């Protein structure tokens, strides 16, 4: 079990480490932090070393050989001091005070020495690489699972020294490694899978050869990644002088990694590679991922020239290069300088290993640890290890928690990383990377410094607009910033700054500041709009910006509360357009209209009327505007549709009686009647008058459109008639007389100018007598005094109501009969035919009356015999038990059964009459019972009532009469009630 010496290690923002309270605390080590020139002594160091005490059982003694950590599982190899040969593998869980798992390995290491120790991401699969001590043996490696003491020698990889392992985070579990990659000292890459149950690997595949037959070309680093949310896989391989990259997209169900290398093996793809000049026979590859994340974000490669590092593409990679950036952290002495050093000096001047953090790299030299910032290559931490601590062996990082560990032969240390990004913003600021500096600045004070520097750089480059936007986000004094831009000829920077400050200004309790900003901005905008020499395009651009500013919510709110101030300011600039716009924005339309009328801008005034919603302003100002632009006024009125009361609007339009004005008003009335379906009588009357006075032919068109039904027309017929008589629109007068059924007046008017119209008018009455009289008037008008026989005969042919005898009185007594011979003969033939028809009808009537008389005599002698067993056709009981009725058809009914059958079919009037008669009869029966003797008069009345009742009830047989008459009526009237009854 391990113990961390610093109980505050859990303060790291991205991991939480629980430390047992019984562990020993070790003093803090001395270190330097030079990440920033303005650090003070009280600032917490970025890196601080803490000693970890492992509770190693007493029976296991010795020095550390190898150590690695993953997911808080720490695995180490201890070698007992000489002359003992005991080598023990211990496995600790750093968060629990449990005894470690221990496995003795000496019996598996005869003739071998341990080259390296590998631990998977779950902390359960351990690989130990073995190399022979003496000739005759082949390289080998051991596999150990955390749950059992059994050590397996992997025979399939005999003669392959494993120098690096890429474990599988996607498919690796506690019981199986999943497909993993193994790199050897000859540049070979194998794929295999190791499991808890199987004694041997399930398979062994050589997937690639980087050594190309060379006896020694070690693979010093091997990493395997999967791009998030894709099936694209990346593999990074590091050799002493090269770093290689492979990528491929696999099927979703494909687990084997061999397919990644297939395209590279057959030559269809070429792997990406980076080379480095080196004098080292090794290199170190490390990746950095946020604790708990599977996909790494940074890569680092230790080679002869230093630490090369950069980012890894975080999304799907479409090119071979996914290792982005290639920055170099140089070593203390470059390759050329190291050539002149002794072997010992050269060994001490080159790092043995390193680990990456988010912004730093921790380099492990043979005798010290050095921390360097990746952004500015400045040393932020350096500490030497004295001989009593033992030889420095390695520095490792737990990929799950992000904890960094350094171990010597005798001791184990952890490194606490405290707020390592604290000075990153200053580094970015120094490089002029202002956006990155702002993103990492943290508190408002630092952000303000970054923004000030960014703005100052923009000012130096002459980019005042950008500077204004930046300074608006700072807390610098308002006056100080304004002085930077106030003298510039270009006012856009100061406007930009003021607007951004206005946007950030809280609306509550800041009335004075709001007034200063808004009024100043309005003044600046109006000054720029009306600046002498401005082109039309420039004015429009400034006007658009001003309009957009005036629509802001905070500005609108302020302006409504301070209308007088803003109105006065705009008026001082003599800007009529914006003054009008301001009035419109505040819905003071009448003032705008008056301004335009005063300036004789009638079209502008009309446009303002169109924008507002108060119809009273139309009634008030349309007469004035109509006088000057009648056509435009009418078009605007038409565009408003039903917004107005036409009866209120029309009287205001006739101000000038010119043809143009009258034509436009007429057009508007037609629009109201035919498009808006206006039915007001006064509107229609007005249109009739305009038509009669100025366009007489249109009167009859309008009247025909309204129709020939006097009850449905929308105009006043009498008024229209008076107007048409006044302006002598004769055809319309005839139409209107006919509508009033004043046929004689209509005919008199028609006879004055159009005989065809007169004849059509005479044919309109439905009364034949009236129609005949009208035609006689036409005859009198045409014939009287002329004795024109031909014309008379033509009229006789046109009207079938006229007879020759009707025309004869209009001729003189001395007219020759020869001219009338044919029509007289024709008339006589017609009369003769009618006489014969009447005689035939009289004979038929006589015969019919005789037949009826015979039938009546036969009926008197007819009788019906009623048997005792006869049944009522309605209730199927004996007929003679109650009063009954017998019909000629043979059907027989009790009196009450007959009444029940007939009453539902009676009309309401007959039903009421029957009820009244029955009440009267009942009343008489009551009176006769009270009287001692029935008077004859009362008895006659009673018999009369009974007779009337029988005439209603027994008027017809229900089966032979009523049922036949009501055959088309439905059986069921109320289906809802039927449904309720059935339920």
TrEMBL record:
GO molecular function per UniProt: protein-macromolecule adaptor activity; zinc ion binding
Stored InterPro entries: Clathrin_H-chain/VPS_repeat (IPR000547), Pep3/Vps18_beta-prop (IPR007810), Pep3/Vps18_RING_C (IPR058919)
Biological processes, Gene Ontology terms: endosome organization; endosome to lysosome transport; intracellular protein transport; lysosome organization; organelle fusion; vesicle docking involved in exocytosis
Pfam families, alphabetized: Pep3_Vps18, VPS18_RING_C
A Gene Ontology term for the protein's cellular component: HOPS complex
UniProt keyword terms in alphabetical order: Coiled coil, Membrane, Metal-binding, Zinc, Zinc-finger
Domain Pep3/Vps18 RING C-terminal: 867-961
Predominant subcellular localization, coarse grouping: membrane
Protein name: Vacuolar protein sorting-associated protein 18 homolog
């Amino acid at each position: 079990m391990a113990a961390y010496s610093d109980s505050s290690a859990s303060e790291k923002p991205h991991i939480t480490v629980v430390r047992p309270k019984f562990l020993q605390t070790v003093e803090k080590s001395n270190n330097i932090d030079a990440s920033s020139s303005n650090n003070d002594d009280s600032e917490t160091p970025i890196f601080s070393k803490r000693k970890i005490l492992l509770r190693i059982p007493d029976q296991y003694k010795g020095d550390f050989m190898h150590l690695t950590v993953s997911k808080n599982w720490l695995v180490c190899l201890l070698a007992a001091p000489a002359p003992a040969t005991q080598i023990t593998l211990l496995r600790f869980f750093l968060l629990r005070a449990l005894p470690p798992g221990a496995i003795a390995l000496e019996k598996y290491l005869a003739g071998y020495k341990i080259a390296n120790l590998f631990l998977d991401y779950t902390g359960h699969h351990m690989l130990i690489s073995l190399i022979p001590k003496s000739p005759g043996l082949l390289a080998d490696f051991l596999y150990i699972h955390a749950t059992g003491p059994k050590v397996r020698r992997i025979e399939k990889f005999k003669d392959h020294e494993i120098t690096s392992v890429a474990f599988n985070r996607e498919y690796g579990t506690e019981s199986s490694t999943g497909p993993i990659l193994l790199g050897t000292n000859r540049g070979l890459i194998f794929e295999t899978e190791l499991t808890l149950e199987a004694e041997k690997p399930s398979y062994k595949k050589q997937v690639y050869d980087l050594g190309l037959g060379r006896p020694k070309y070690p693979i010093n680093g091997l990493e395997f990644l999967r791009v998030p949310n894709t099936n694209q896989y990346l593999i990074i391989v590091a050799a002493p002088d090269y770093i290689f990259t492979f990528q491929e997209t696999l099927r979703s169900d494909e687990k084997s990694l061999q397919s990644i290398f297939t395209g590279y093996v057959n030559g269809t793809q070429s792997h990406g590679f980076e080379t480095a000049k080196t004098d080292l026979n090794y290199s170190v590859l490390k990746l950095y991922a946020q604790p708990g994340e599977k996909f790494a974000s940074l890569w680092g490669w230790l080679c002869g020239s230093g630490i090369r590092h950069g980012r890894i593409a975080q999304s799907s990679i479409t090119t071979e290069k996914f290792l982005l950036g290639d920055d170099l952290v140089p070593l203390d002495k470059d390759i050329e300088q190291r050539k002149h050093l002794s072997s010992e000096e050269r060994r001490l001047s080159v790092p043995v290993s390193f680990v990456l953090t988010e912004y730093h790299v921790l380099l492990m030299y043979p005798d010290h640890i050095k921390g360097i910032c990746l952004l500015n290559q400045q040393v932020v931490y350096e500490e030497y290890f004295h001989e009593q601590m033992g030889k420095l062996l390695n520095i490792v990082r737990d990929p799950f928690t992000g904890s960094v560990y350094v171990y010597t032969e005798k001791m184990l240390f952890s490194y606490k990383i405290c707020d390592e990004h604290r000075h990153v913003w200053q580094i970015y600021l120094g490089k002029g990377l202002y956006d990155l500096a702002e993103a990492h600045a943290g508190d408002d004070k630092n952000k303000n410094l970054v923004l000030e520097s960014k703005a100052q750089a923009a000012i130096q480059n002459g980019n005042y607009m950008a500077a204004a936007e930046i300074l608006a986000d700072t807390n610098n004094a308002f006056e100080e910033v304004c002085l930077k831009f106030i003298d510039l000829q270009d006012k856009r920077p100061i406007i930009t700054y003021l607007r951004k400050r206005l946007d950030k200004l809280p609306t509550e309790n800041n009335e004075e500041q709001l007034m200063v900003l808004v009024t100043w901005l309005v003044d600046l905008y109006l000054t720029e709009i009306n600046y002498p020499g401005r082109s039309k395009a420039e004015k429009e651009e400034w006007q658009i910006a001003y309009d957009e500013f005036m629509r802001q919510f905070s500005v609108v709110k302020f302006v409504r509360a301070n209308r007088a101030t803003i109105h006065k300011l705009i008026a001082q600039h003599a800007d009529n357009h914006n003054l009008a716009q301001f009035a419109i924005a505040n819905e003071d339309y009448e003032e705008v209209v008056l301004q335009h009328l005063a300036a004789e801008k009638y079209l502008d005034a009309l446009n303002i009327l169109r924008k507002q919603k108060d119809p009273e302003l139309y009634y008030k100002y349309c007469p004035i505007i109509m006088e000057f632009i009648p056509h435009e006024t009418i078009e605007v009125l038409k565009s408003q549709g039903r917004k107005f009361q036409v009866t209120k609007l029309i009287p205001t339009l006739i101000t000038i009686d010119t043809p143009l004005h009258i034509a436009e008003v007429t057009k508007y009335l037609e629009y109201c009647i035919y498009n808006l379906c206006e039915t007001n009588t006064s509107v229609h009357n007005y249109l009739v008058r305009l038509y009669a006075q100025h366009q007489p032919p249109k009167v009859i068109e309008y009247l025909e459109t309204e129709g020939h039904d006097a009850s449905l027309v929308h105009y006043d017929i009498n008024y229209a008639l008076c107007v048409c008589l006044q302006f002598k629109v004769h055809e319309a007068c005839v139409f209107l007389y006919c509508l009033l059924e004043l046929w004689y007046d209509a005919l008199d008017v028609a006879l004055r100018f159009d005989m065809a119209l007169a004849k059509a008018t005479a044919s309109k009455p439905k009364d034949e007598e009236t129609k005949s009289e009208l035609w006689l008037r036409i005859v009198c008008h045409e014939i009287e005094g002329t004795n024109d026989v031909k014309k008379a005969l033509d009229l006789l042919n046109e009207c079938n109501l006229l007879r020759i005898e009707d025309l004869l009185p209009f001729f003189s007594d001395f007219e020759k009969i020869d001219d009338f011979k044919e029509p007289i003969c024709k008339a006589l033939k017609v009369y003769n035919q009618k006489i014969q028809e009447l005689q035939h009808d009289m004979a038929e009537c006589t015969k019919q009356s005789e037949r009826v008389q015979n039938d009546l005599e036969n009926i008197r002698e007819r009788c019906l015999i009623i048997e005792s067993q006869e049944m009522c056709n309605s209730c199927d009981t004996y007929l003679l038990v109650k009063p009954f009725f017998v019909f000629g058809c043979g059907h027989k009914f009790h009196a009450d059964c007959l009444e029940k059958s007939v009453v539902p079919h009676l009309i309401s009037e007959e039903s009421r009459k029957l009820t009244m008669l029955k009440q009267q009869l009942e009343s008489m029966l009551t009176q006769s019972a009270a009287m001692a003797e029935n008077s004859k008069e009362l008895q006659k009345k009673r018999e009369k009532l009974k007779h009337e009742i029988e005439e209603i009830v027994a008027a017809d047989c229900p089966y032979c009469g009523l049922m036949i008459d009501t055959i088309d009526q439905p059986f069921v009237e109320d289906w809802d009630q039927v449904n309720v009854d059935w339920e």
